[in-house]
Amino acid sequence: MRLLLITNPAAARTQPHVVQGILDQFRAGGWQTEVAATAGPGDARRLAAEGVADGVEVVAVFGGDGTTMQAASALVGTDVALGVIPGGTGNLLAGNLRIPAAPIRAAQALVRGHRRRLDLGRVERDDGTHYFAVAGGAGYDARVMVETSSEHKRRWGMVAYAATTLRLLHELRSTTYHITVDGQELEAHAALVLVANCAEVIPPFIKFRRTVRPDDGLLDVIVLRADTLGQSVLAIWDLLREAGGGAERALVGFARGAEVTVEAFPPQPVEFDGDGAGRTPFTATVVPGAVEIIVPEGT
After folding, report:
1. Is the pLDDT of residue 66 over 50?
2. DSSP strand pairing (58-63 vs 32-37)
3. What confidence tier does 32 reach under pLDDT thresholds 50, 70, 90?
4. With helix as H, strand as E and coil as C, how does 40-93 read?
5. Given 3.40.1650.10, 3.30.428.10, 3.40.920.10, 3.40.50.10330, which CATH number is that of 2-112?
6. Planar angle of CA 75, 81, 84, nearest 5 degrees
């Protein structure tokens, strides 16, 4: 088995001694392993594409969700499998797939794991094609992702996101969204709109909705309305209960489809798997079975 390991030295937990421990696990499993490190934006995609052209069978990424999705974009439609080793702040894809959070254990699980085809969301932007595995979003969540600095993420991990969430809470406001799901047009007054491919936003504790699956050929739209702290608490409570809160409250809404367009008035910031991607509008299209990912036994 030939494997290319792409590392992101700027990610939160990718120290050299940990990289060496991961390599030891791969080599103990009999895998021929090459290593390449990213140095700037776009490097993960380029390195993964070079690995595919060179005939590797697996491209593993030791970094965060953003680096992982850059590499995954080069594997779409190929038989080269993606390996995920959590090294960033959120690591939401790894959590949804029950890949161990500890990098060495994740490498062990990868060696023993099996391949599974997963859908991805695809978005065409002015700077090219973007993919997301967990979710894309517009509004408040995108502001939190964009305004949390890389330095704070490296230093404090998930606490950095919590701190930004609290800092921006007084600015929480709903705005008008125009959402089109498979041709059906919807209007919403919302603080954030999420287009989800995976079920869990904080694995395994907080789920968007139990019916969200990354292999069902559909994207799930979650809309949250909140203009105050009290409304945001109620909206999250309704989300956890998978309820709309009743006609008198209606803080959470759901929809499903293969293609989703999100527009906002005024335009709102956008993120895909935690990486900022400009502002609305955007159109997300599901790509069924887009990529093979190696997941732990029993997943």
Report:
1. yes
2. unpaired
3. very high
4. CCCHHHHHHHHHHHHCCCEEEEEECHHHHHHHHHCCCCCCCEEEEEECCCCCHH
5. 3.40.50.10330
6. 100
